[in-house]
Design goal:
about 575 residues, alpha/beta, eight-stranded mixed sheet, 18 helices, globular, CrtISO-like, Amino_oxidase, FAD/NAD-bd_sf, Amine oxidase domain-containing protein
């Protein structure tokens, strides 16, 4: 979402150049490999058997951040990825010269330094990775009140509010900004990379930043509740502002303001609603980010094994995790730890249920889940389009029923307007999706080769076409290559339980469990362990997991090195 989605399935529609859409998804995935191959990445069968200090299951952003940092800390790290392409929900692929992204599209804070930088920025700095980042500051919004181009920064939204809501709304927004100012500052006091899940946190986080925490008074304590309480405290009543903050909260966490932790929104305010701020797009798209993390992992001695699906986590006779067994043969033994970057539900599938603490297993299995996605990928002719076409577009069809209602919010990204190399000359690539609002139940049990599945894809993707048409009215005529992804595609290619975006743990009603488990030697990172789901959150989860496994003094030295 703001910072989260696979070689999608081709679909047939009544547009020209249909013949190139009948390729199989399997060959499409092979064509899509964007990371240079190496012998270690492509080993098969028993040739993949090896011994390492740490094995990480999954090369999503969280897994790569965790594995890269542990490699920097000096451990032998092996990352096992089920797909033929690294990146998890952030991976991308190419078809006919079009570069398609499966997930993230809106980034910020990657170039930052010091405490206010994005957690991903901290990891990139630690690994010595520099991305070629393109700066910009605008995005297009289509809401029931009208269309407007918004610019992140200190004062642009005042102009928008004055136009669509009037001076009273402007006054409320000013009041909210005033209420958020100390909270935004407090959110940046203790960077997530300073945390660890053991008593050492008293030194690396609490002790290191105690003077600043004392100075902040009670502001830091207010960050742990739902953001809706901050809106109530600031007496925000304007319906558009409340809806807008629900939307931003939803894009950050998959939940509206009453379920999103205030710290996450405060951090966003610190990045987006201050003078001279900007968004960042990595040249080459999400694959450039993934490739940077892979290179950081390998530069420090870590290894990545693609097409290496973990069938199960091996436990010894005392119940401790000792490694993983791979589908098709091969076993990776881990001397120190096994770390799962899979979702909580998919992690449980790799563990023998009869050897787990029953209460822990049941609690984790019952973790509430966000719904899934619909995706529409289009390669299209850009002839005659306005050259100032925006990268990002958000379409809200109605506020009735809220932003989490199915078939409502449509997010659109056209990365080739920022980096023309991502599409053939004179063309653009586009990704539109329903962000975590598509019910899995509609798709459960369908055969992906059946007429019923094809018909449902056609039906459920129409809202995406309609959303894109609000930006490019003749998109159906321009389209040359079309692919549609469904919850079943999500489930299949991301190995995600029910194709879910991630846990729907509402702030104030539950807690994310962090990286530790009751199984000795088994740790977790990713969106099931840390609030937020998007890229900053999963990067933070990977860093926290890695820090938990190393001595406090090594962690302290890393914080000094990255300037926090």
């Amino acid at each position: 979402m703001l910072s989260k989605h696979i070689g999608w399935e081709p679909t047939r529609t009544n547009i020209r150049a249909r013949s190139n859409l009948t390729v199989s998804i399997r060959s499409q995935s092979r064509d899509a490999v964007a990371v240079p191959s190496s012998p270690m990445r492509q080993l098969t069968g028993d040739a993949r058997s090896l011994e390492t200090d740490v094995v990480v299951i999954g090369s999503g952003i969280g897994g790569l951040c965790c594995g890269g940092l542990l490699a920097k800390y000096g451990y032998k790290v092996t990352v096992c990825e089920s797909h033929s392409i690294p990146g998890g929900a952030a991976h991308s692929w190419m078809r006919d010269g079009f570069h398609f992204e499966s997930g993230p599209s809106l980034y910020s804070g990657m170039a930052g330094r010091g405490k206010e930088a994005n957690p991903l920025g901290h990891v990139l700095t630690a690994l010595g990775v520099e991305l070629d980042l393109i700066r910009y500051n605008t995005w297009n919004v289509v809401v029931p009140e009208g269309n407007f181009l918004t610019r992140i920064g200190n004062d642009n939204f005042y102009e928008v509010l004055n136009k669509i809501r009037g001076p009273e709304a402007v006054a409320e927004w000013a009041r909210l900004q005033e209420a958020m100012r100390p909270l935004a500052k407090a959110a940046a006091l203790m960077p997530p990379t300073a945390f660890r899940y053991d008593p050492g946190v008293l030194f690396t986080a609490i002790g290191r930043y105690l003077p600043a925490l004392i100075q902040s008074g009670g502001d830091a304590a207010r960050l742990s509740g739902p953001f809706s309480t901050i809106l109530d405290f600031a007496d925000i009543r304007d319906p558009f502002i409340r809806n807008w903050m629900d939307l931003l909260s939803f894009l950050l966490s998959g939940l509206p303001a009453n379920g999103t932790i205030a710290a996450e929104v405060a951090y966003m305010f610190n990045e987006w609603y201050r003078p001279d701020c900007y968004l960042e797009f990595p040249r080459g798209g999400s694959q450039a980010l993934v490739q940077g993390l892979v290179e950081g992992l390998e530069r420090h001695g870590g290894r990545l094994m693609l097409s290496s699906h973990v069938e199960k986590v091996n436990l010894d006779n005392k119940g401790a995790a000792t490694g993983v067994a791979l589908r098709g043969g091969g076993m990776v033994k881990a001397k120190k730890a096994v770390i799962s970057n899979a979702s909580v539900w998919d992690t449980l599938k790799m563990l023998p249920p009869d050897r787990l603490p029953e209460q822990w297993r049941r609690t984790r299995q019952e973790t509430p889940a966000c719904p899934s996605f619909m995706h529409l990928h289009i390669g299209f002719d850009a002839t005659g389009l306005d050259p100032s076409l925006e990268l990002h577009h958000i379409v809200v069809n109605t506020w009735t029923g809220g932003v989490t209602a199915p078939q409502n919010v449509v997010l659109i990204s056209i990365p080739s307007v920022m980096d023309p190399a991502m599409a053939p000359q004179g063309k653009h690539c586009l990704h539109a999706y329903l962000p975590a609002t598509e019910p899995y139940e509609l798709w459960k049990g369908l055969d992906r080769r059946s007429p019923q599945y094809a018909a449902l894809k056609e039906e459920r993707s129409q809202v995406l076409w309609a959303g894109v048409e609000k930006v490019i009215p003749d998109i159906r005529k321009r389209a040359e290559l079309v692919m549609v992804g469904t919850p079943l595609t999500h489930e299949r290619f991301l190995r995600r339980h029910r194709g879910s975006y991630g846990p729907a743990i509402a702030a104030g009603k539950g807690f994310f469990p962090g990286p530790t488990t009751p199984i000795p030697g088994l740790y977790c990172c990713g969106d099931s362990t840390f609030p937020g789901i998007g890229i900053p959150a999963v990067a933070a989860s990977g860093a926290i997991c890695a820090n938990t496994l190393v001595p406090v003094w090594d962690h302290w030295k890393l914080l000094d090195e990255i300037g926090v």
